[in-house]
TrEMBL record:
InterPro entries membership: ACAD10-like (IPR052898), ACAD10_11_N (IPR041726), Aminoglycoside_PTrfase (IPR002575), Kinase-like_dom_sf (IPR011009), Ser/Thr_kinase_AS (IPR008271)
MF annotations from Gene Ontology: protein kinase activity
Keywords for this protein: Transferase
Identification of the protein by name: Phosphotransferase family protein
Compositional bias segments (type: Basic and acidic residues): 14-39
Domain spans labelled Aminoglycoside phosphotransferase: 64-314
Region annotation Disordered: where it falls in the sequence: 1-39
Pfam families in alphabetical order: APH (PF01636)
Amino acid sequence: MTDDAPGSDTAADGEGRGDDVHVADAGREGEGSHGDDYLARLVDPERLRAFLDAELGPAESFALERHPEGHSNETLFVTHGDRDLVVRRPPPGETAETAHDVLREFRVVDALGDTPVPVPETLCACEDESVLGADFFVMARTAGDVLRGAEPVRFAAPDRRRRVGEELVDTLASIHSVDPGAVGLDDFGRPAGFTDRQVDRWSRQFRWAFEVTADEREVPAIHETTTWLTEHVPGSRPETLVHGDYKLDNVMFGPGTPPELVAVFDWELSTLGDPRTDLGWMLSFWHDPGDPEPAIPELQSTFTAREGYPRRRDLVDRYEAATGIEYEHDRFYRTLAVYKLAALGEMFFRRHLEGNSDDPLYPKMEAGVPALGERCLRIIEGDEGL
């Protein structure tokens, strides 16, 4: 998510109301006219407006824009009267089992509203698929910057860069310090056996994707990694609330300085489980000086190698001090992280082959996933250390 205002360059029929309805697809490079067709599969503007009128009260104006940055669940920016909103829904078409669970995301974000974990304000959720063709939820829009491809100019100083890393890891520590029972999440998952199930779950996601993608090319490094992970699951693990997708471009920093982390997004994979999976995931996206170029540059920025940003080891030390949780078995957790990213990529590739996405990143997974498989093997062999 970004703080760009929703666009309103394409008018939709207001059905004689005499008030404003605007719909736009911000689009992605190379989409052409296909973007409008895809947007129509995501949302019926009049049905969404009627739902919001019923839940939040009637509004004289309505504007809708699809956010182009996310690569999993779809994000729609909505202006409903004087409210700036975000709607989260799954992509269209068949999805892998347990993927894209936006109602699970709604539940955890709603539960964390009164905790130290910064989350957007939740407003309502909908299980009636006659509205948008899928479950969805609505939250208030948060102002600030997501650090995805570059750092904001106001952060381009060593002390502010250091603070970005500290805010990121401190917020992860606050997530792992939440008492699930105190916020109604004591039944949110099965922490016993969680890490074993992670390996099994993501290998099943691969199998689902390979049903279609294997006809295009094989990925032997993934099969080798699956075997290694299965044989090296740590025997003793802590248990906390976990985010499941915690990294720099899933959080937002407020518009001022010094850097302040104001919201954590994308909770669809959250559960109760092993917090070291979150830390390993975050570290796998953090680029240190001397690291190899990312296997998929669109999914990993390299600006954290600049002067001032903490190194991965610094982040681990700060996390351990804040939580009392020792980050053991680093090779396993970072390999699992890259393996999960590769599984997501292979699911993206299947969706591309089946015509269920217009994201220009998805066809790049034909080469990107094998490159991630090779990265898994480098971590396993100790060639890409902490």
